[in-house]
Specification:
With about 425 residues, this protein is an alpha+beta fold. It contains eight helices and 23 strands. About 25% of the residues lie in helices and about 35% in strands. The strands form five sheets. Strands 11, 14, 16, 17, 18, 20, 22 and 23 form an eight-stranded antiparallel beta sheet that branches. A five-stranded antiparallel beta sheet has the order 1-2-3-4-5. The structure holds zinc ion.
């Protein structure tokens, strides 16, 4: 540990100063060692006078040689040669490394990766670490005069982190204040965005608890991992989402009862838009100026904004259709159909009979047909009847298969009990003596 610290200090000084500092440090170290001896062993003064045989001293008792550690992130036009030269390594030493067995592992260095070397007092490479990502890389080390080069893989360690947040301003700002990383909060928003409208549904005093993973290498955090469980208290309602690794290799989030938190339909078919006209059965038509029911929702957006299929389905109609202009209809199931009007253009892959996925771009916002400006007119039909897409209760995406239910129940039980335990502990801390 001490050696490591000294080396770190060294990195920041020119060599001449380093020698002086080293001398000073050695003095300090020896003074403190002698000092300790003096205090703890004063009574055993007699023993200290005994002579110690040289062969009793093991190798480990000797002073570790001091290495200088140097590190750099690989930039464009860098090569192993230029980097090592910059570190002050002599050409002969670099060539010796390059001529060693397996040196081809070091031949492809990539921009953004890291190289760390430990140099001895003659600026010779003692060992070199090429770090590919936090998980793996190549290591070269000198043993008995020969460089041994091989790949390595770091052992990753996962730890669970618990956070409890009482929302004062927004879900996001309050989360940041509690030290939750940005990427984790984004995941929390995505997981719960199907059930909670974070702009309109959150009330001060709402709260949430989460458990997420941190990934460590050698005890240091290298990455924020997955969110394992979230529990929202929103306007007195508790919403729990649990991550579960499905047999097909995918991971999804489910309620305690195994219902997929994802819905079969997206809330909105146009991402950057605002609702310019709601579903209204008695509305004056802006072009025809007569009372005509508005059987859908209008999303105003820039011309050319992508229009997304709100659910998985099959294209059942895709052509110009009078007032609706360029129109697309998607049949999602026997019960559900969605309709998209006034499109400027169709996505080139959209043809009647083609299957589409939720979120896939099917066309672009325009003002074809009867429209005053670019917007998407969006309709939602249930069993052939017009339904308000903003009020309809969407069906859930695929639930857990019965064959995976037992495993899910165990995972859900484990995570909810952990969350409750953590919550008990943290709440007890908040109420002194409580
Ligand atoms: Zn409309």
């Amino acid at each position: 540990m001490l050696v490591k610290k000294i080396v770190t200090i060294f990195k920041n000084f020119p060599k001449r100063h380093s020698v002086a500092i080293l001398f000073g440090l050695l003095m300090l170290v020896s003074i403190s060692i002698l000092g300790n001896f003096d205090l703890s062993d004063r009574k055993k003064g007699a023993d200290l006078t005994k002579k110690i045989k040289i062969d009793v001293l093991k190798e480990g008792d000797q002073f570790e040689p001091i290495y200088t550690s140097k590190e750099t992130v690989i930039k464009r036009n860098d090569s192993l040669f230029t980097i090592l030269t910059k570190f002050g390594v002599r050409n002969e030493n670099i060539i010796e490394l390059i001529n060693s067995k397996n040196s081809n592992l070091l031949s492809k260095i990539e921009v953004g990766d890291k190289i760390r070397v430990n140099l001895d007092e003659n600026n010779e490479i003692k060992d070199l670490l090429y770090i590919d990502d936090f998980q793996s890389g190549v290591r070269a080390g000198k043993f008995e005069g020969i460089y041994v080069i091989n790949k390595f893989k770091n052992k990753l360690e996962k730890i669970k982190v618990f956070k409890h947040v009482i929302i004062q301003d927004s879900m996001y700002v309050s989360g940041i204040k509690e030290g939750i990383p940005d990427s984790v909060l984004m995941d929390v928003v995505y997981i719960n965005g199907w059930d909670i409208d974070f702009t309109h549904d959150i009330r001060p005093g709402d709260s949430y608890s989460i458990i997420y993973e941190e990934i460590l290498v050698d005890g240091e955090k290298v990455l924020d991992g997955d969110v394992l469980i979230t529990e929202f208290n929103n306007k007195g309602k508790k919403i729990t989402s649990i991550r579960f690794d499905l047999a097909n290799g995918k991971s999804e989030y489910f309620s305690v009862n195994g219902i997929n938190v994802k819905k079969a339909f997206l809330r909105s078919p146009v991402k950057l838009s605002y609702i310019s006209s709601k579903y209204n059965l008695r509305r004056k038509h802006p072009v025809l100026h007569t009372i005509r029911s508005h059987n859908g929702v209008d999303y105003a957006a820039n011309k050319g904004s992508p229009v997304r299929a709100t659910g998985d389905g099959t294209v059942s109609f895709a052509e110009y259709n009078s007032g609706c202009g360029n129109e697309i209809k998607i049949k999602h199931s026997e019960d559900y159909t969605t309709r998209y009007c006034h499109l400027d253009k169709y996505n080139s892959r959209i043809k009647v009979g083609k299957k589409v996925k939720q979120g896939q771009t099917i066309g672009y916002v325009g003002s074809t047909g009867l429209a005053t400006g670019p917007h998407l007119h969006y309709e939602f039909h249930v069993n052939g009847k017009h339904t308000d897409p903003l009020r309809v209760k969407f069906p859930n995406a695929t639930p857990i298969k019965s064959s995976e239910k037992i495993k899910f129940t165990q995972v859900a039980y484990g995570l909810t009990s952990q969350l409750n335990n953590y919550k008990d502990i943290s709440l007890r801390k908040e109420v002194p003596g409580g």
